[in-house]
From TrEMBL:
Coiled coil: none annotated. GO terms for biological process: DNA-templated transcription initiation. This is RNA polymerase sigma-70 region 2 domain-containing protein. It comes from the Bacteria. One of its GO terms (molecular function) is DNA-binding transcription factor activity. Pfam families: Sigma70_r2. Residues 48-116 form the RNA polymerase sigma-70 region domain.
Length: 130
């Protein structure tokens, strides 16, 4: 069974097994453009990030973060995408899409951990009834 969500007429396989080679090559090119400091990379980053908006939506359906709407998810996804572009090293044969998905998922889990820690701190500060 393939775990896929259909979002905005774009099918995105969560397991990344269906990510085709043409898109992967295009993504690799865009990552190189974003990584280079001598070019105007805003358009390349926007084009690259648009490939991954369905991934962000699918993760939003899986993970729940209090007070996070779709725009917050997009903002966090963009921040992680840019950091992934800068730190990505494809020399070992890894794909950027897999790398970005891993970083984004770890970032979301960290946000959930922080949220749960904040809840515990609030609960500890409540005075006990006499």
């Amino acid at each position: 069974m393939i775990n896929a969500y259909i979002i905005d007429n774009f099918s995105y396989d969560i397991s990344m097994k269906k990510f085709d080679k043409a898109k992967d090559n295009k993504i690799q090119e865009l990552v190189k453009i974003v990584k280079s400091s001598d070019k105007n990379n805003d358009d390349a980053f926007c084009e690259l990030f648009n490939y991954f908006k369905p991934l962000i939506r699918s993760l939003q359906l899986i993970y729940k973060i209090d007070d996070f709407d779709y725009d917050d998810w997009i903002q966090e996804g963009a921040i992680v995408c840019y950091k992934a572009c800068i730190s990505y090293n494809g020399s070992r044969g890894s794909r950027f899409a897999s790398y970005y998905r891993l970083l984004l998922k770890n970032h979301i889990i960290s946000l959930i951990r922080k949220q749960e820690t904040a809840k515990r701190k609030i609960n500890k500060k409540k005075p006990l009834l006499p």
